[in-house]
Amino acid sequence: MGYPLHRARRLRQSDIWRRMVRETRLTGDALIYPLFIVPGRKVRHAVKSMPGIYQLSVDEAVKEAKRAVDVGVLAVILFAAPAKKDAKASAALDPKGLVPQAIAALKKSCPQLLIWTDVCLCGATDHGHCGHVLASGEVDNDSSVETLAKVALNYARAGADAVAPSDMMDGRVLAIRKLLDGAGLSNTPIVSYAAKYASAYYGPFREAAESAPAFGDRRAYQMDPANSREALREVLLDVEEGADLVMVKPAGPYLDVIARVRAAVHVPVVAYHVSGEYSLIKAASERGWIDERAAVFESLTGIVRAGASLIITYYAPDVCRWLAE
């Protein structure tokens, strides 16, 4: 008859129809905002490769957190760039270090805010690797795990609402869980960077966190971008070891991995919309090549559609504000 029997466009004909039948909904409740903590007072140092993002002293981090809370952000994740770096990552083990200081200040000023803490050695070591380096140049797994568990315990004792190991050492989730439970901190969740890829998209972050490796790269412990079945193995191992949430990092280039992980586990799946993804959108929007707001919504909605329950993103305050308009 030359006449369509089925007209899918009927439910697209107005904004109200599109909103009512929308399958994937992005909400501010799902977003976690990263904060970069540095020594000093009144420090608000712009990260050149990440327009709108700053390295913050503790007092400035409190101001930034208050602004985020005011627009609806529910959680932050802390990264520290201490002045003192050594082979033992001593600054990350210091109970009076930058992260414990920031936790105490944020808890006092924003008691309703959930505080996640990244657990790694890269920002506190003079070599910039995520674990202890042997004389051969190899990153030693087991001694690194021992230290990482102590770092997690340090942050949990300081009041962190969750600890998030990002190092990709084997067995670190179990070691952290045992140490936390033995210290009476069994209620502290572990957010495992379970499938963290050796990605080119981390470049701007390394400026912000001052964590670039002094030699070599991290391909011997972070995942090969070509692998997805391996991601499932890593995720399932971490869940078995006691991870309460599992993460895929980066997000956008790994939507297929997010989907496969979502189908494989029954814990919340977190995706990290990383610095490179943020900076690409920023750079294109500043040149007038792309609509920033539309691109952000499309990117984050795609991550949720793939199966992420939560997203770590530098756009968290902006998105919460845009959603409220």
Helix-and-strand structural type: alpha/beta
Q: Let me know the CATH homologous superfamily.
A: Aldolase class I
Order of helices and strands: HEEEHEHHEEEHEHEHHEHEHHEH
Can you give the helix content as a percent range? 40-55%
SS strand fraction: 15-25%
Task: List the uncertain runs.
Answer: none
Distance between the termini: 46 Å
Output the CATH class name.
Alpha Beta
Shape: globular
- Cα-based radius of gyration, to the nearest Å: 20 Å
Total helices: the number is 12
Structural domain tally: 1
Record field, number of beta strands: 12
Mean pLDDT: 96
The third-level CATH topology is: TIM Barrel
Q: Biggest sheet: strands, sense, closure?
A: 10 strands, mixed
Q: Architecture, according to CATH?
A: Alpha-Beta Barrel
- What oligomeric state best describes the polypeptide chains here? single chain
Describe the structure.
It is a single chain. The chain is α/β, with parallel strands linked by helices and about 325 residues long. It is built from twelve helices and twelve strands. Helix content is about 40%, strand content about 15%. Strands 1, 2, 3, 4, 5, 8, 9, 10, 11 and 12 form a ten-stranded mixed beta sheet that branches. A two-stranded antiparallel ribbon has the order 6-7. Helix 2 runs parallel beside helix 12. The radius of gyration is 20 Å and the shape is globular. It starts with 14 loop residues before the first helix and ends with a helix.
